Amino acid sequence: MTLTRFAALNLFRNPLRTALTVAGVAVAVVAFLLLRTVIWSYNVAADSAVPDRLVTRHKVTFIMPLPKRYIDDVRATPGVKDATWANWWGGREPNKPTEFFATLAVDPESYFRVIDEMVVEPADLQAWKEDRQGAIVGDMLAQKFGWKKGDTVRLESQFFDGLYEFRISGIYTATRRTVDRMTFLFHWAYLNEKAPVEARETIGWIMSRTNGKPTEIGRTVDAMFDVKDVQTISQDEATFNRSFLAGFSAILSAINVVSIVILLIMMMILGNTVAMGVRERTAEYGVLRAIGFLPKHIVTLVVGEAAVLGVGGGVAGLLVAYPVVQLGIGRFVEENLAGFFPYFRISPENAVAGFVLALVLAALASVIPAWQAGRLSVVDSLRRVA
Amino acid sequence: MSSTPAEPLVRLRNIKKTFFRGKEPVRVLDGLSLDVPAGSFEALMGPSGSGKSTLLNLIAGLDRPTEGEVVVGNKTISAMSESELARWRADNVGFVFQSFNLIPVMTAEQNVELPLLLTKLSKSERLQRARTALKVVGLADRVDHYPRQLSGGQEQRVAIARAIVNDPRIIIADEPTGDLDRQSADDVLTLLGRLNTELGKTIFMVTHDPAAAERATVRRRLNKGVLE
């Protein structure tokens, strides 16, 4: 018998209350992990940007196009090693219009040189370059829609009329887990020839690989276009990603607050449970004090009991959260919200934070009841015996 | 035991104890003096509110007098701090309560081992002592039983084993038979008598039960804070 074992044994006095409390902590930990994973996944997508990559877009908003000729000017800028472009096409499968995935019209010659975290078999890449209606799709997207190399796919656009027919030339994979594997890539030239006249010879944004100083080069690029008909803003990729997702940041801030509030609620529930236990055991603490236990021993017992509850709830929360997120919600989010959350999984740091916070907040929740138990007068406590 | 039966183990001198009911002082003990010889078995009786429990608490080092001196052995416990008193109680006093107060989630052996957690004894030494104490009270075959698996009399005997496991000089018993039937009460009183005669423990018992008081070698009566 030790004081720690004594504290743990106290949890078996009322197994139902203990089980419900552990379940309450576990639910709070699961909710906390889910919300923190949303924030982490958002940030990891932005933070995993390639450091030397520069993104140039229309100065007003990224939904306004740039003249196609700008790509040549960017490529000619000192410090730019390579450059490519993309147009947002807003494509969707006509039979599954609610299934979202990104569709980009790109330059087949340069796209995979600049976006080298996406990997395609060389033979497939060559076949794609040679097929004006060819498409390269992410492996997760192919799996989701059951597409195979050689399949014909018809998609419609939110912005352009008519059906566009594509042939799947290949499937791309990713070198990092944070890369979106749900994108549909096709020839910009195919779009350009089918698009209305006013939309032709325009591009969405330019992506450049630089000599490692994208911010400096970005200033040069923007200065170059400042005197032209369409002005630009150039940002390193991480900044661009964040500005692209900026509309989501207020929600993320709210999620952040809610995740903390959930833990505080958990702390109050635990504090109440511990306080109930202390109240019921006042006489017992009086007996312990009578036989020589000091206030610090009583405090240790109460805090220890709460800590064991926190550990139990933390472990249970992790055991529930992992399958729920890694096998369920995470996969769903990655398939349906890949643009925002290409990699939606519980990070080790969030798992550790969830567990440690459950433990620490449980111990903190018990501080007041423990302090009250420790300062009880022995005689007053024993009076509740009879 | 260093004291002989003739020497007082407990000496109370001019004890006054005042409580406050709101702002109104209530004097419970008024100039009480008492000697309890080492090795004696004393019973204290008296009506409710006479100050029995207060006196018991002072002798046990659970409370301090408003005025006066409490000396047990050669220690003036009325001058000790809270933590000094706690350590002194752990070394010198065994407690037996009316409602047993065993920890329900612990076995008999674990309950008896409890006071030894405050010592530097090894686990095996603690268990050895706990088993010996349970053997003394006749419950060697109940070491793994939980309180709910024991009768009231057995629970009180486990409590007595807990009271003697650290070999205290004095055992304080507060209505030890109050929650027991006659037969169990007799068994408990017989056990207390044996602890007194065979192990030389000084026992100071508060009781309302005249039959229990009869088992003591000295009987005192307290009335309105004064020993009669």
Radius of gyration of chain A: 29 Å
Q: How many β-strand stretches of chain A?
A: 13
Class of secondary structure makeup of chain A: alpha+beta
- Low-pLDDT residue spans of chain B: 1-5
Characterization of this structure:
The complex is a heterodimer of chains A (386) and B (228). The two termini of chain A are 27 Å apart. Chain A has 15 helices and 13 strands. Chain A has two domains: 3-46 and 248-383, no CATH class; 60-230, no CATH class. With 386 residues, chain A is an alpha+beta fold. Chain A has helices at residues 3-10, 15-47, 70-75, 111-114, 122-130, 139-145, 188-194, 214-226, 237-244, 249-280, 282-290, 295-336, 348-365, 367-374, 378-383, and strands at 53-58, 66-67, 80-88, 91-92, 102-106, 118-119, 134-138, 152-157, 163-174, 183-187, 202-203, 205-210, 232-236. In chain A, strands 1, 3, 4, 5, 6, 7, 8, 9, 10, 12 and 13 form an eleven-stranded mixed sheet that branches. In chain A, strands 2-11 form a two-stranded antiparallel sheet. The mean pLDDT of chain A is 90. Chain B has 228 residues and is of the alpha/beta class. Chain B has helices at residues 52-60, 82-92, 108-113, 123-136, 152-164, 182-199, 210-214; strands at 8-21, 24-37, 41-45, 67-72, 75-76, 93-96, 170-174, 202-206, 218-223, 226-227. In chain B, strands 6-7-8-3-9-10 form a six-stranded mixed sheet.
